[in-house]
């Protein structure tokens, strides 16, 4: 099968994000200048650089009460900081509860019953019991082609790792089993791993 996106795919559901899979989930927490906290998951998320460490996520829809974007991007525009919380399988239902299009005054931490902690280097909340958290300072927001498509880039200025996930000096993802997004309404979980040596090693 071949299709041109501009012509449509003719299938019951869009296969695009089912092809690019699995995708890590960036559970983005923010605090507006008015003190309102927000928490929302984004599956267009990844690490993009080592030195300095940098991450990105993309928001691809808008809410009426935020104009051209969603709460996360609006608050990051406002304050210049955000936190990425890593999602473990055990928190799948809580993560899903924060994915709704809630009114801007809703604190998703409270809505989903998630314990909140304060970041160390930025004025922002974080998921207290997440396996890891990246405290980030905004470097740039890039408007992408298409309505409401924004890529947000940030430099990681603080890293939290849950003590039980650090084993023999390494961050062991099998201690918490990362949740990943697939296509449609599907998710997957990391429960095994293997290593490959690069050529010449």
Automatic annotation (TrEMBL):
Annotated ranges, domain Flavin reductase like: 18-173
Which Pfam families is this protein grouped with? Flavin_Reduct
Which GO terms of the molecular function aspect are on file?
Answer: FMN binding; oxidoreductase activity, acting on the CH-NH group of donors, NAD or NADP as acceptor
Return the protein name: NADH-FMN oxidoreductase RutF, flavin reductase (DIM6/NTAB) family
Q: Which organism is it from?
A: Citreimonas salinaria
């Amino acid at each position: 099968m071949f299709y041109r996106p501009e012509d449509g795919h003719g299938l019951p559901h869009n296969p695009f994000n089912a092809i690019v899979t699995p995708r890590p989930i960036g559970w983005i927490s923010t605090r507006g200048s008015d003190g309102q906290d927000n928490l929302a998951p984004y599956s267009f998320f990844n690490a993009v650089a080592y030195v300095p460490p940098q991450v990105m996520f993309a928001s691809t829809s808008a809410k009426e009460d935020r104009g051209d974007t969603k709460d996360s991007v609006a608050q990051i525009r406002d304050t210049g900081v955000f936190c990425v919380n890593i999602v473990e399988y055990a928190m799948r239902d809580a993560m899903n509860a924060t994915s709704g299009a809630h009114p801007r005054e809703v604190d998703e931490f409270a809505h989903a019953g998630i314990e909140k902690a304060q970041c160390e280097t930025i004025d922002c909340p974080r998921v207290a019991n997440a396996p890891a958290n990246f405290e980030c300072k905004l470097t740039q927001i890039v408007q992408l082609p298409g309505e409401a498509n924004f890529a947000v880039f940030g430099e990681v200025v603080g890293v939290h790792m849950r003590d039980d996930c650090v084993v023999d000096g390494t961050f062991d993802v099998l201690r918490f089993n990362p949740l990943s997004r697939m296509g449609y309404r599907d998710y997957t979980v990391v429960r095994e791993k293997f290593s490959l040596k690069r050529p010449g090693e």
